[in-house]
Structure formats: structure tokens, C-alpha cells
Amino acid sequence: MSPVKTPLVKLSAIRKSFGPVEVLKGVDMAVEEGQVVAMIGRSGSGKSTLLRSINGLERIDGGVIEVDGECVDPGQIDLRALRQKVGMVFQQFNLFPHLTAGENVMLALKVVKKQDKAATRAAAESALAKVGLGHKFDAYPSQLSGGQQQRVAIARSLAMAPKVLLCDEITSALDPELVAEVLGVVRKLAEEGMTLILVTHEMRFAREVCDRLVFMHGGRIAEQGPPAELFDRPSTPELAQFIGMVEAR
Amino acid sequence: MSPVKTPLVKLSAIRKSFGPVEVLKGVDMAVEEGQVVAMIGRSGSGKSTLLRSINGLERIDGGVIEVDGECVDPGQIDLRALRQKVGMVFQQFNLFPHLTAGENVMLALKVVKKQDKAATRAAAESALAKVGLGHKFDAYPSQLSGGQQQRVAIARSLAMAPKVLLCDEITSALDPELVAEVLGVVRKLAEEGMTLILVTHEMRFAREVCDRLVFMHGGRIAEQGPPAELFDRPSTPELAQFIGMVEAR
Amino acid sequence: MLNFTLWDILSNLLLAARWTVLLSLIAFVSGGIAGLLLLVARVSPVPPLRLAAKLFIEVFQGTPLLMQLFIVFFALPLIGIETSAWTSAAVGLTLFTAAYLAEIWRGCVEAVPKGQWEASASLAMTFPEQMRHVILPQALRIAVPPTVGFSVQVVKGTAVTSIIGFVEVTKAGTMITNATFQPFLVYGLVGLIYFALCYPLSLSAKALERKLNVAR
Amino acid sequence: MAYSFDFSSLLDYTPVLVDGVATTVGLTAVSTVLGVALGVGGAAARTSTVKPLAVVVGAYVELIRNTPFLVQLFFIFFGLPSLGIRLAEWQAAVLAMVVNLGAYSTEIIRAGIEATPKGQIEAGASLGMTGPQIFRYVVLGPAMAKIWPALTSQIVIVMLGSSVCSQIAAEELSFAANFIQSRNFRPFEVYFLATALYLALAVALRWIFSLMGQRMFAKGVSRA
Amino acid sequence: APTYAKADALERIAKEKVLRVAVPQDFPPFGSVGTDLKPLGYDIDTATLIAKEMGAKVELVPVTSTNRIPYLTTGKVDLVISSLGKNAEREKVIDFSTAYAPFFNGVFGPDDIKAEKAEDLEGKTVGVTRGSVEDIELSKIVSDKVTVRRYEDNNGTISAFLSGQVQLVATGNVVAAAIFERNPPRQPIMKFLIKNSPCFVGLNKNEGPLLEKVNAIIAKAKDDGSLNDIAKKWLHAPLPKDL
Ligand SMILES: Nc1ncnc2c1ncn2[C@@H]1O[C@H](COP(=O)(O)OP(=O)(O)OP(=O)(O)O)[C@@H](O)[C@H]1O
Ligand SMILES: Nc1ncnc2c1ncn2[C@@H]1O[C@H](COP(=O)(O)OP(=O)(O)OP(=O)(O)O)[C@@H](O)[C@H]1O
Ligand SMILES: [Mg+2]
Ligand SMILES: [Mg+2]
Fold first, then answer.
1. Which of A15, B36, B247, D200 keeps 20 to 30 A from D145, CA to CA?
2. CATH superfamily of domain region C20-167
3. pTM surpassing 0.90?
4. Does A175 reach chain B within 8 Å, measured CB to CB?
């Protein structure tokens, strides 16, 4: 038996309200290094909020978030150290429109990591190459397809060498035929041992690539486990209904 | 054998360029009354442009469009008659936000068809009832879910009693769990004998509901025929690739 | 010799402020009407009309109001059109206001999503019908805050009418300064009067804008 | 029409007109640079989390935007000497124009900043950037690109507004026009010419700014 | 002549019984405003007198030295009685009556500044009202080393002097005296005279009958002492003999 690993990301009893509405009602979750976790659930079930809490974009009201052994205080203000460990990719890409693909990737290396010019450039080139866009270094986001933009966004996060990468429905804003190229990149990252937490509606992808599926319902984790198991034998009626709905089309 | 029917919509050698780029390179197509046609193809292949040409939102550069026996001149300015025969539903719903659902449906009946108040109201009520929203007559678009808004948009077109209804990716802007309710309405229309031309990415739906599938590629119709046939035995490599791509997820 | 008490100064300035207010109202109302016509021309599908409106706007936004007033007042008589100070000020301010409002409103019309034009066209509506029932109701709603905001510019613009003989607040201010030798006090008061006229307008423009953003 | 136009009498005054145009251009150029810089600072202050700073800048903006430029100019030139602050006419003119443009551009740039999609800021934050870094590298560029047309219009307005600086004897274009017409008693010719020159300046200014905009905000940020 | 206006002003005045006169409101004692902001002064009294003689009501139009000529040439007023000085260039554009008021212009400044002749102005800043006679005469006698600031109207000139924006002003002696009388923060004291340049009534060209009528009225007023009364009232001195 292997020794008990400390998880890379550990969430305990996370609570979060927006005004009077409690959106996260006590979430516990642990993700080990190299794991690929997919979160699914209905719209409004709190998936994005949970993900955003992990890198401090939302300040939680209660509970403890631990990343790589360090605690994220709910009240803490300096989140810079945390955020260098936790990368995030958004549904809407959020590339900086006034910078080229290369500059998008280099910016944080320069101003946050204070790397020198040569190192920055080398890192950016290798990150872009990794997502198959080595040749688009000088293209502006507006000159790229949605799929390419999303891949640049992934490269931008990767270049910071995060311990874990959070992806929030990163293919939902894409035209159907562009989805595959982005999922391909994610699949590669997973194979290379990157720790990933994904929110996704691509059930087939989740099934194939993920180690674990987390089904959120009403601000709680209603069910989790290996994808095949959950899909084939959902133990809650909510999950059964959700699967039915997604596959109804 | 039945007599040769004149098609309701007949496109011959349609050409359209945006600036230097030729987007439609000579498209021929005929749709008979009561037929349900789905157009598929990669992004940029010209599906929307073709659809928009049929009701004159794009002015074509060459070719002939005939709707219900009447010719649509490429240079013609008065499109009102045509547009009363051709309804259109958009991806982004495009409901008038300052009007209630009922008023949205009634507006064109009032100002275009000059119907009296009672007739207008009756028509609007029946159209809304048809899409299952009889009870939302006085709701503003902002008070409706995406799926409901799209159904109002369909009702708005239906109320004008068009001969043919064009639908351009009408479920693409919807949350996954709302797609089914809109497709349900379209399915019902198809069953009731409405002539429909749809651009869609919902392959399963296309397969079940449509009489004919039209595969566009690079501004041309690359292939068309009964859905089952096309899906199972694509005769062009482009279609084979497209099907692979869409199903890869 | 003459002695202006603080009350003399203030009452004279306030009396002069009547003209400022009246001129502003005239400019705003007639400028609004002219601006609406100009707007329709500017976005109409008729190219010559669009061009003419564009040219008009370009000229009136590209030259100082001071010069416009001077030309209306002193040059129109040269071609045989008699203009009183009142009509000149009204005409000059109206044209000026119309040009700016038309441009502001064009921005609002263009802020109405293209899909609204297309949806209404697909329902077989004509350009006037689209404008009347679909575009303007939406555009005018978002136009309210910037329009109220622009009224501040109109109020301030009336200061320039002193060139053609109007004794409005600014002119009264210079005259009184000259008689009292108290520029700091007098111009301070003049500034305050304008502020009292304009600030409520600015505030309501902001409030309207906030309301609009919430409503959406 | 009884009046006979005679533009030839303007020829003698060409140097005066040239000086006037040059002064107008100079005043506009200096106050544009300083005024926009002030506006960037003001906008940063107004959107900052430091409340008192935001309030002070807010008061400045409101005060300036709700009083006529002419009154501000008179106050600075004629009023401030009572407090022992005496400025030359060009200094007063530049100060008034900078203060005026500063207030307007603060508002304009602030609007641009606030129109920055939240996702952009979140993306910057997720990369570990600090607030000021996000402002400097992520927000400012696209905000400027977005408000460039509005800023251009405001600068044109300030340029046209500089015509009232003639009232404190700053020798710009309107001053030249007034000077000439008071000598040759031919106001119509002079004012028509001056108006045309203003129009030309305004058109040139817009053109220059749109060129600058195209260069600076070339590909990435279209106005959409 | 480059002048617009119908050559029947006198007829119109007789018919409508209104005489429209451009008068200053920023040039005491010729024209300034009372606490009700109504114009008063030498020029205003002269205008009233001429109107009375014509049997018409006077309509006073306050003008600045910048816009008084356009007011006249566009026919918005019949006469300009606005301490207008005469020179050859101006005579090409409008007509002048005989003189109705004396006017000596000079350079004025506070006690502590010494200036006895034009050369002494070098290195100093002098304010003057653009387009006034003082402006034109001053421009003739000073060198490049003198900074001349030209203001839109007399309000500007006077304000500039009083607020110290200019060291000296060129203006009329009586104007300076009137300012002095109001006890201002800086006192204009006579440094030297520039020119004797009496004031004339300005009229449009081609208004022969009106010109004759105005001249006749002025001559009569000089004879019967009514103009002298106005002079004594506003200038505290009788009309000079040579006027
Ligand atoms: N900033 C906010 N202010 C107020 N309510 C919010 C905010 N962000 C999210 N919510 C609410 O919190 C709930 C959970 O939202 P969240 O975005 O986490 O859901 P989700 O599971 O990601 O849904 P989706 O699949 O639509 O992205 C929703 O009801 C949402 O309306
Ligand atoms: N108004 C326009 N101006 C310029 N180019 C246009 C315009 N509209 C469409 N195009 C171009 O025409 C081509 C065809 O576009 P169209 O929208 O018809 O494709 P589509 O098949 O509907 O794609 P999608 O699946 O993305 O909707 C594309 O390359 C597009 O960029
Ligand atoms: Mg979400
Ligand atoms: Mg399309």
C-alpha cells in the first residue's frame, strides 16, 4: 500500500452566500496530485462558485480551503501566492484583447514572476507550442477562432506552472466543431499528469478522461465517484434525472 | 404517381459575396410544401447566409429565389410581400424587450397586416398557446427563461401565418436543459405539416424529425438526402469528417 | 457714486439667470425636435439624406458656438434675413443642440442590437414602422440619461449668447465686476448659479442611468 | 444683396491669422497632453477603493462639469489674483483648459474602465497580478481604445472652447479674428474665415486622433 | 460701399418713432451700468438727446467695442454712439458725424510705475481694448519691446488692470478718472497723453439725410448748451472750445 498522500486541494465545509441565498451549503472535497475531477450538475447548483472559491475569486463565508498544504483564509487579502499555484481557465476565454497571443502568455510571467525577457519568451513559446499554437505567437485574439483563443487561455495559465488547473465550462462558448480541439488539449494535459478540476457539460469527455465525477446539487455534493459507476448506477434520483435530461437530446 | 408539385421555395444558382470573399458559390435547392429540411455544415460554410438570403436579409449577388411562385429579385427593394410568406427565428431570439410576449406577437399583425384589435389579440393568444405559453401573455422577455423566449419568438413568426419558417440554430443560445422544450415545439410544427428549413447542430433531432438533410461545405451544397442515408453512408469525405467531428465528443 | 451691495449683485445675477433658463429651454425643446428629424435622416436608408445630415453635424460640431451665433446674428441680415437677438440666439442654439443630440441619439440607435432590426424586418415591417415601433422606443429609453446630461452643455452654452447682446448670467457678471471691482466674489457667484442650475440636471442624469442599468 | 464681400483685405493680416492658428494649436496640444494625463490619474482615483480620494476627485469633476468654461477662465484669470495667484494669460488659458479637460476625461476614462468585462479583471487576478498591475496592464489599454472616440470628441470641444480664451487676451484664433475685424471693420469675412479654419482644425484633429488610435490600438481591440 | 442697410433710415425713424442706438456699458463715464444694470453715461444722454430732437423714442442697445460695427452695418441699430474715434480706415466703412464729446487718451498706471513717454513703456505690459482708438494709436507709437495685451471689451481691460494682470492701461482720461473715483484696489494715474481724439456718432454709408439731421442736432445742442450740460454732468468740465 502506498503511504497516505496529503491531497493537493482540500475543501472542508465550504459555505458561501450571495446576500440571503446560500449557494454553497458545506462542501467537502479532496483532490490528489495528478487527479482529474469533473464537476457536473444543473445550472445554478454552485459549480462555478465552488471553483471560483478555490482560487479566491469568491471569498467564502465559512470552511477551510487548503491548497498544497497552505490554508486559504476566508478573510485573507493577499491571494497572490495562492493564485500562482492555482491556474484558472474561463468559459469566456478572457484573453487580453490588446495583446497578442504571445504577449498574453508573457504578461504575468513578466509582471508577477518578474522573469527576464528571454526566459519569459521561451516559456511563452513552449506553452503555446504545447497547445498547438506555436505559430500564432503574434496573432491578436480577434484574429483567432474561439477554439484557438481558448487554447491560448490554457497556455497562459500553464505558463505560470500552476499546481492545479481549474476549468469552468471551457468549451461552452465554442462552436461545436471547435470543441474537440480544446478537449484534445485538456486530454493531453490529463495524460501528462496535470491536476485538473473541470466543470463540464461534455459527458462523454468526462466519462473518458476523468478519474472522478462530482455531481453537485443545490449547493452540496450529492454524489461522487468513478464516472462509469455514476453514469451507470446513479444512486440519487437527482443524478438519474440529470443524466436523463442531458442525454434526452 | 402524384402530379409534379411546384416547390414552395426554389433556389437556383445563388451567389453571394462579402467584399472579396464569395460565401455562396452557386446554391440550388428546392423545398416542397410540408417538407422539413435541416442544413448542417461547418461554421462559415454559408448556412446562415443562405437562410438569410431566402427572406432578403442578405441581398444576393446572383441567382434566383422563388418563394410560393413569386420571384425575389436580387435588386428588389420592397421585400414586404416576401417576408409575410417567410417567417424567421433567430439564434438570439431577438424579442422586442420593451413589449410583453403578447405585444411581441401582436405588433406585426397590427402594423403590417393591419388587423383589428380583437383579431390581433385572438391570433396572438392562439399562437402563444401553440407554443405552450398561453399563460405568459403579459410577461416581458426579461421575465422569461431562454427557452420560453425562443418559444415566444416562434409564436411571433407563426402568428403571421408564413408559408415557410426559417430557423437558424434556434437552440444554440440555450442552456442545455432548455433545449428540449424548444425542439419539442419545432417537432410539433413539423408534425402539423409546417414547411421548415432549419440550421441545427442537434444531429439526433435532425435525424428524427427531418425529411431531408442538406450538408453545406465551402459555400456549396456538398450532399443532400434522407438523414439516415447521409449519416450512415456519407458519400463525400467532408461529410464523413464532419459527422466524425460532431460525434467525437 | 455707485455702490453695489451683495444683494444688488446677487439679485442682478439672478435676474439675468432668467434669460439663461429661458434660452436653455428654447434651445433644448426646439433643438430636440430638430435633432430627432436629423437623427432619422442620419440613420435612414436614403444615402443623400444620410450624407446631408452627416455634413450638418460635422459642421456644427466642428466650429465654435461663438462663431455660429455670430454668423447667424450678423451674416443672415446680409442675405436679407432680419434676425433679432432672440431669434438668432434661438436659431443658433437650436442648430447647435440639434447637431449634438442627433449624434448622441445615433449612438443610442446603434446600441439597439442589430437583431432587432433583422427581427422586425423579417416580420415585414418598413423602415418607418421599424423606427416607430421597435428601434426608437428602445433607443429613446437608453437616450434619456445622456440627453439630460447634455442639457447641462446647453445651459452652459447659453453663456456665449452675450456676444450678440444678451445680458445673461455671464455677461451680467462681467458688467458687475467692472462696476464693483470684485471679480473673485462675482465670478464665484456666477459659477455657483450655473452649478445650481446644472448640478441637479447632472444628478438626475446619473440617477436615470443607474435606474436604467438596474432595469436591464 | 448690398454687402459686397472682400476677402482680399484679409491678406494683410495673414501673419496675425497664422499666429492665431498656431496659438490655438499650441494651447490645444499642451492641454490635451496634460488634461488626458490628469484624466487617467483622476479615473484611477475615482475607481480606486480609497474612498476620500474618490470623493475629492468626484467633487472636482462635478464642479468643473457644471460650470461654463468661460466662467472658469474668468475665475482663474481675474479672480485668483485676489488670492495673490497671478498667471499670464497663456498660463491661465492652459490651466483652465487642462482643468476642464481633466474633469471630462476623468469621467470618460472612468466609463471605459468600468466597461471592462469583469472576466478580464478576474483573469488578471487569477494570474496573480496585483490591483495596480491589473489596472496598468489589463484595464487601461482596452479602456482607452474603447473611449478613444469619446475622448477625441471632448478634445475637439476643448479646442473649440479655447475660442473664448480671447476674452482674457490669449492671442488664439478668435483673438486674431476679433483683432482683425476691429481694424478693418470687416467682421463677416473674418468670421467666415475663422469658422472655416476652426472646422479645418477640428477635422484635422479628428483625423490625427483616429490615425493615432489605429496605430496604438491596432489589431486587438476593435471597438466591438 | 461695403455696407448693408437701406438708405432710408431717417424715414423709418420718423415713421416708427424709434431711434436705435448702440451704446457702451463698460466705459464709464461714457457708458456704464447702474445697480439695475441699465446703461447710463455721457453717450446714453447724448443718444437720448438726439432721439428727443428727432421726436423718437430711444432704444439703447448695449454693445462692446468688438461688435458695435457689425450691429451698425447689419442695420440692427441706426447710430453708434459709443465713444467712437475716427480714422481714415474706418471712414472707408462707415460715416461719422461731427464730434459730440472730447476724448483724450493716455497711458495710466499706479504711482509706483514711472512712464513719461512711449519709450518708457519698453519691458512693461500695457492693457488696451481691442479695436478702440487707444489701441490703434498706441500700436503706432510703441516698439516691439512693449507687451500690449488686447482685451475683448473695456470690462476685460479694466479687470485686467485692477487685478494686476497688466501694469498699465491705455484708455481715456475721463475713463481713468471714473475708475479712480470708484476707489479701486489699484489706482490709474495719468502717465502721459497719447492723442486727442474726440468722439463721433457712427452711421452707415449712404445715409445722407440722417447724417445731416444728426449733425444739425449736435450743432444745435452745442449752441444751446444742452451738450455742455451733459459734459458738466459726466466729465465735470465744460465742453472744450475747439470741439
Ligand atoms: N455574483 C453573484 N451574485 C449573486 N448571485 C450569484 C452570483 N454568482 C452566482 N450567483 C448565484 O449563485 C447560484 C450558483 O451559481 P453558479 O454560477 O455557481 O452555478 P453553476 O452551477 O456554475 O451554474 P451554470 O451551469 O449556469 O454555470 C446561482 O443561483 C446564481 O444565480
Ligand atoms: N456581414 C458579413 N460581412 C462579412 N462577412 C460575413 C458577413 N456575414 C457572414 N460573413 C462570412 O461569411 C461566411 C459564411 O458565414 P455564415 O454565417 O453564413 O456561416 P454559417 O455556416 O452560418 O456558420 P455558423 O455555423 O458559424 O453560424 C463566413 O466566413 C463569415 O465570416
Ligand atoms: Mg457556471
Ligand atoms: Mg450561422
1. D200
2. MetI-like (1.10.3720.10)
3. no
4. yes
